[in-house]
Structure to design on (143 residues):
């Protein structure tokens, strides 16, 4: 399988996992709010955010990869081979990918379309979030 396709599929797997986790907590929160217990609903939403931060920040910080990256044998590293900081991971995995994507749906669709066209044509071109954070995605299947 092409490296560019595996990069895209790893991001898709991570997105599906995050949406599934958010959906479970959101469903619970709606149940509490419908019963009139807004406090428990808010706690469920806070738990959802903590779970997403755990999956997208803590796991990559400790293991070096997200779940999707581990499945498809890709890894994000710093260009100077130093360990990624928690702030880089937070910015790349949470803020740049998901926050902006959900707030600016039209921009996000265009952004991902352009990125996927770039990745399919020449995957050595850094994507915008990698260029800003000075990271790159490497292929672990060749090791």
């Amino acid at each position: 399988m092409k490296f560019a396709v595996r990069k895209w599929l790893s991001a898709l797997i991570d997105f599906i996992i995050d949406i599934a986790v958010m959906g479970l907590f959101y469903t619970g929160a709606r149940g509490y709010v419908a019963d009139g217990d807004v406090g428990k609903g808010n706690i469920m939403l806070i738990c959802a955010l903590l779970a997403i931060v755990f999956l997208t920040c803590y796991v990559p910080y400790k293991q070096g990869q997200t779940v999707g990256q581990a499945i498809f044998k890709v890894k994000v590293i710093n260009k100077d081979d130093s360990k990624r900081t928690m702030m880089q991971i937070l910015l790349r995995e949470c803020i740049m990918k998901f926050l902006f994507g959900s707030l600016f749906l039209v921009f996000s669709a265009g952004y991902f379309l352009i990125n996927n066209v770039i990745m399919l044509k020449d995957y050595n071109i850094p994507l915008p979030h990698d260029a800003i954070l000075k990271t790159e995605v490497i292929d672990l299947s060749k090791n």
In short: Helices lie at 3-34, 38-63, 67-71, 86-103, 105-121, 128-133. The CA atoms of residues 78 and 88 lie 9 Å apart. The chain has a mean pLDDT of 79. The longest strand covers residues 74-78.
